[in-house]
Amino acid sequence: MAGDRSVRGDRRIGSSEEMPEIPPAMSAEAEGFPLACFVKGPRERWTAEMLLSHPFVTPPSVFEDEAG
């Protein structure tokens, strides 16, 4: 079952040093977001505020407003 695989993946993230595989079709911008989330060390891992300001999750209208 697909759900079983996702649970195994969740456990592997918490107990392994290896990073989850990022699909090759993801843009560099999209790829950077999960990599920032999966950093194991809390001092190196992005904060929620940093993640919410990442271009992958920032609505395009925010960029348009700043561009003027």
Indicate the topology.
Elements: H1 2-15, H2 28-37, H3 48-52, H4 60-67
Give a quick summary of the entry:
This protein is an all-alpha fold and 68 residues long. It has a domain at 23-68.
What assembly state would you assign to the polypeptide chains in this entry?
single chain
Query: Main beta sheet, described?
Result: none
Unreliable runs: none
Can you write the helix and strand succession as a string?
Answer: HHHH
What integer is the average pLDDT? 76
Instruction: Count all strands and give the number.
Output: 0
Quick one: overall form?
A: flat
Helix content: 40-55%
Radius of gyration: 15 Å
Could you characterize what this model shows?
One of its GO terms (biological process) is signal transduction. Residues 1-27 are annotated as: Disordered. InterPro entries: Kinase-like_dom_sf, Plant_MAPKKK. Residues 1-15 have a biased composition (Basic and acidic residues). The protein is mainly alpha-helical and 68 residues long. The protein has a domain at 23-68. It has helices at 2-15, 28-37, 48-52, 60-67. The longest helix is centred in the first third of the chain and has 14 residues, at 2-15. The model has no long low-confidence stretch (mean pLDDT 76).
